Amino acid sequence: MKQILTALAIGIVSSVTAARAADIDWSKVDAALGKTATVSGEVRRYGLPRSDLHVTLDGVTIKPALALGGWVAFAPMHGEAMVMGDLVLLDNEITPVMTKLLDSGLEITAIHNHILRASPATFYMHVGGHGDPEKLASAIRAALTSGSKTPFEPPATTAAAPPKLDLDTAGIDAAMGAQGKETGGVYQFGIPRRDPVKDGGMPITTAMGGANAINFQPTGNGKAAITGDFLVTGNEVNPLIRALRAGDIEVTAIHSHMLDEEPRMFFVHFWANNDAVKLAKGVRAALDKTAVAQH
């Protein structure tokens, strides 16, 4: 009887959540942010790439999809919405954007670097909040528009087909034990953890930033620049970074992104530019030191 009641309770909660999600007029959120969302389950994710910036690192021109891809994501929560995001900013944009966000009731959960030696230097402001999703979207856009040069106009379209990715993607997939996807000239992986992280009782899905993000940007002759972040528990940090260094992959940052997640998680960022398949093997060896979902 207890199992039946529990199942009924879960079904009722799921039905209520679905009804509340349906009550949100997402077209108004799209309009408020001036963007079209990518939908993954109940999560709506909006890209905020810094395509206006020309950033170089060790002679590599960074594509937005490699390390300049700001974003915010919304998920229905208690009849309203939870928002989480990562905004890419220059140093002189941090304070004005932060001030505007705080004045609007949003929270700042982290500010830090992801990569080293980049010119100009870029920083990453993680934000969170809960409330009316249209108001949250309006506040985020107002903060970025007034305090930064983050573009909101859609990129110019071209009729020409994008060039074929100059990478051995089959070899990378085999080494990674997963299949990547091309986005903006970058080969990307989102490797979830075995057990999802929760924040405020809500599971943090891949679309909300709850996965290991591994990006490969071709640099010619079978090589790639790689960066991204690993999502790990405290006891996994040092085994992971030892494996990265053994693979000659630079560790560029170790920090938190959230404030109230369970269990406590850390994000380890990295950089290398070398043979892409070799780097993929190094990344896989590092992933194997953590509790990732098995493919």
Describe the structure.
- The protein has 295 residues and is of the alpha+beta class.
- It is built from 8 helices and 17 strands.
- The chain has 2 domains: 8-147, Alpha-Beta Plaits (2-Layer Sandwich); 169-287, no CATH class.
- It is 30% helix and 35% strand.
- The strands form 4 sheets. It has a 6-stranded antiparallel beta sheet with strand order 1-2-5-6-8-7. The chain has a 6-stranded antiparallel beta sheet with strand order 9-10-13-14-17-15. Strands 12-11-16 form a 3-stranded antiparallel beta sheet, with no helix packed on it.
- Helix 4 (94-103) packs antiparallel against helix 5 and helix 7 packs antiparallel against helix 8 (276-287).
- It starts with a helix and ends in an 8-residue tail after the last helix.
Keywords:
six-stranded antiparallel β-sheet; disordered N terminus; 17 strands; alpha+beta; 2 domains; Alpha-Beta Plaits; about 35% strand; about 300 residues; single chain; about 30% helix
Task: Offer a quick outline of the entry.
The protein has 295 residues and is an alpha+beta fold. Helix content is 30%, strand content 35%.
CATH topology description of the largest domain: Alpha-Beta Plaits
Number of strands: 17
Summarize the biggest pleated sheet: 6 strands, antiparallel
Order of helices and strands: HHEEEEHEEHEEHHEEEEEEHEEEH
CATH class of the largest domain: Alpha Beta
| Shape, per Cα inertia axes | globular
Mean pLDDT: 90
| Percent range for β-strand residues | 35-45%
Structural class: alpha+beta
Strand order in the largest sheet: 1-2-5-6-8-7
Contiguous low-pLDDT stretches (5 residues minimum) are: 1-19
What helical percentage do the residues reach? 25-40%
Q: What would CATH call the architecture of the largest domain?
A: 2-Layer Sandwich
What number of domains? 2
Radius of gyration: 20 Å
Oligomer: single chain
What distance lies between the first and last C-alpha atoms, to the nearest angstrom? 36 Å
What's the number of helices? 8
